[in-house]
Design a protein that fits this description.
By secondary structure, this protein is an alpha/beta fold. The protein has a domain at 53-142 and 182-314: Rossmann fold (3-Layer(aba) Sandwich). The chain contains 14 helices and 6 strands. The chain has helices at 2-25, 39-46, 52-67, 85-92, 106-119, 144-151, 155-158, 160-175, 178-181, 190-205, 212-227, 243-249, 253-266, 296-304; strands at 72-76, 97-100, 124-129, 231-236, 269-271, 313-314. Helix 4 links the parallel strand 1 (72-76) and strand 2 (97-100). The N and C termini lie far apart (72 Å). 34% of the residues are buried.
């Protein structure tokens, strides 16, 4: 019997070590017992690569919001990732939660909104939207990364990705090797960034179909907000003016205009697609969709009132 138990212990010891390692490192604060690594370092690590960033942000934010829901929300994709909620609070006096997910689709945004409504009574919602994902072929939902973990917690220990995340967290904590967490596009030359932009644009625009179901879901959401006294705004963030060449090349000018009309027919829309002094300066952008982080505070000023935005808001009689 003792031999049998010894064999079991020897056999299971690697599994026990892995479980203990993940509990101690806890890359997503899922267990929320050990805090040997700071949240700021964990966030750096989950953003370490183009592959880890979407998955990592969904899991981190899904768990964080579940633990502490906030009534004011930003929802969108990577274009709103750097909206600083601390700065927004400084301007408005209210707490906001940034639910912008790099690589997030409209389906991801819809799911995040309904997820939030189950956890708290919402007050203000800003939907950051872009034309590039307003496409029926962009049909995927990243929220499943968070849903699957919460519904099946054992995967925190059985899925190799979480062990990998724990390893990178431990490695970074011990070495402080900034190359591990350096954002890949910050190292790229302007020529390389232009090539990346062209690749992404071609990927997004080469095949387009009007997303009828997306419009219907947006209407469902805006109707819900009206019925429940929730202030709702769409936000179209700036693009580099060079994007227009590709919109014309792929014959999507009318589709882009219809996208904007759809939003403006449903709710007040802050349309900053092309801003003077920003959209015409290539040096202020990474690719053609993402302005550099140092200019995002200007957008926050415009959206939340330090700078007049009346020229950007279009209120239709059908909108909220």
């Amino acid at each position: 019997m003792k031999k049998y138990l010894s064999k079991i212990l020897i056999f299971s010891s690697p599994i026990i070590l892995v479980i203990v390692f993940i509990i101690v490192i806890d890359p997503y604060d899922f267990i929320n017992i050990s805090h040997v690594i700071s949240d700021s370092d964990k966030i750096k690590v989950l953003n370490r690569s183009n592959a880890s960033e979407p998955r990592g942000n969904v899991i981190w934010k899904y768990i964080s919001y579940r633990r502490k829901p906030i009534e004011n929300l930003l929802i969108g994709d990577s274009q709103g990732k750097y909206f600083d909620t601390a700065y927004i609070r400084e301007i408005t006096g209210e707490k906001y939660f940034n639910f912008n997910i790099p690589g997030g689709s409209y389906k991801t945004m819809f799911s995040l909104f309904w997820y939030a409504t189950k956890l708290t009574k919402l007050k203000n919602v800003y939907f950051q939207c872009g034309f590039m994902n307003y496409n029926a072929y962009r049909d995927y939902n990243l929220i499943n990364y968070g849903v699957d973990l919460v519904n099946n917690p054992i995967t925190y220990f059985s899925n190799f990705k979480f062990l990998e995340d724990s390893y990178y967290n431990a490695y970074y904590a011990l070495t402080k090797n900034e190359k591990l967490v350096e954002i890949y596009y910050l190292k790229m030359t302007l020529q390389e960034l232009d090539s990346l932009a062209e690749y992404r644009i071609t990927n997004m625009f080469k095949k387009y179909k009007y997303p009828e179901t997306y419009y219907k879901e947006l209407k469902k959401i805006t109707d819900y907000c009206k019925e429940n006294d929730i202030t709702f705004r769409f936000v179209i963030t700036p693009n580099y003016i060079g994007l227009e060449k590709y919109i014309k090349k792929f014959g999507l000018t009318e589709d882009r205009d219809r996208f904007k009309s759809d939003l403006k027919s449903l709710a007040p829309t802050i349309d900053m697609e092309y801003l003077d002094g920003l959209s015409n300066d290539r040096s202020k952008y990474y690719d053609y969709f993402h302005c550099r982080r140092e200019y995002v505070s200007r957008l926050v000023d415009m959206i939340w009132g330090k700078t007049n935005i009346n020229s950007f808001i279009k209120d239709n009689s059908d909108g909220q």
